[in-house]
Design a protein that fits this description.
- The chain folds into two domains: 137 residues, Rossmann fold (3-Layer(aba) Sandwich); 118 residues, Nitrogenase molybdenum iron protein domain (Rossmann fold, 3-Layer(aba) Sandwich).
- It is of the alpha/beta class and 266 residues long.
- The strands form four sheets. Strands 10, 11, 12, 13, 14 and 15 form a six-stranded mixed beta sheet that branches. Strands 5-4-3-8-9 form a five-stranded parallel beta sheet, with helices on both faces.
- The protein is built from ten helices and 15 strands.
- The longest helix has 21 residues.
Amino acid sequence: MEFKDQMNNTIRLDKYPSRIISLVPSQTELLFDLGLDAGIVGVTRYCIYPPDKTNKRAKIGGTKKFQFEVIDKLQPDLIIGNKEENYPEGIHKLQEKYPVWMSDIATLEDALLMIWGIGELVNKAKNARQIIDEIKTRMDRLESYPLMKVVYFIWKDPYMVAGGNTFITNMLYKCRLINIFSSTGSYPKITLDQIDETEVILLSSEPYPFSQQDIEFIRKKYPNLPILLVDGTMFSWYGSRLKYAATYYRTLREEIRNCNAVKKSL
């Protein structure tokens, strides 16, 4: 069997895989949601969902530092990774020995194609179609909220934000939030003086775990703007967790509306 991944690599398999390693948390969650279980033999230490299953799998290192000796002992017949989340040198080394299917995702449409591609790859196409249909139905029903300008922080010291050509920026737009850094590189370093034009400030829960303290610090400079902590997985995870994104976005937009209502009343 031959399959094409999202980086146009050809993956050849003699049979459907039964010893899979996942190198990306959101794709690990997807594999379990597709109905796989015993066939997933290894995951990264950042793959924590679903916890009752990932806790029982061998850990092969981080997303950007693989433990090759552990991978070799697991004898995988398929490895699944991602262009952005994994490091090229490690992927190239794995490709010399194993079939490696790579995703490359910047939009919701890319994510849906990834879900379908992996579904076919692991002989779970029917399950993949159900997940895709559920995501599309829920996203299609998402209300057309008024457009607002947003900045989405992902890191501190230095401050870094989601920028152009990122999945985060695409999903923000699904929530009718326009990223003021959409014309920059993927994850630019900025200062707080560069966000004057924004109408909403979002602080992500990952990869840096922003806190209420961070909100209070930024509020000293921007006291009249909504500043909210958000679940980063709802904007950056591109697997089956997308089933819950539309509901989360509704709640977020309501929180933003309430923040603005409070400010106007003061």
